[in-house]
# Entry
Amino acid sequence: MEYLRQTYGLNVSKIIMSSRINGLNPYCRVIDVPDHILSKLDRFLNTNFVTGRVLRQSVNKNVRRLVETGSYRGLRISQGLPAHGQRTHTNAKTAKTAKKTVAVAKLDTANTAKYAKHIKTSNYGSKKLNRSSKSFLGKQKKNTTSKKKKK
# Structure
């Protein structure tokens, strides 16, 4: 019964149980099953299980209610983090991968122009300090590595 596995809300154990109750082999192909037995199975699943669109709507409604009430679980869901007390320091990579980007405020251009002479930009755009700058080193050090000439 492969076509039932595609239905939202039905797992393998529910499919096997419902097909055995209705007198079907759970591993048979749909082509081999008569239409009246398939309709009987369909009625059984609709009366005993919530599946498909109705299940999705109820799950979304519950999540929306948690977020709107401002509960702890609702806040964790809205932030995209685990809501059931799982560890987040080293695990929860799937929950943390889809982080939302936060806008960065622009710096004041007057202040940045003052310090621009101390910053060099490499070919890749990363910023490096200009080591020859007086403000970086404080006072310029004398070159002590050169040998003095003997008279």
The longest helix spans residues 52-69.
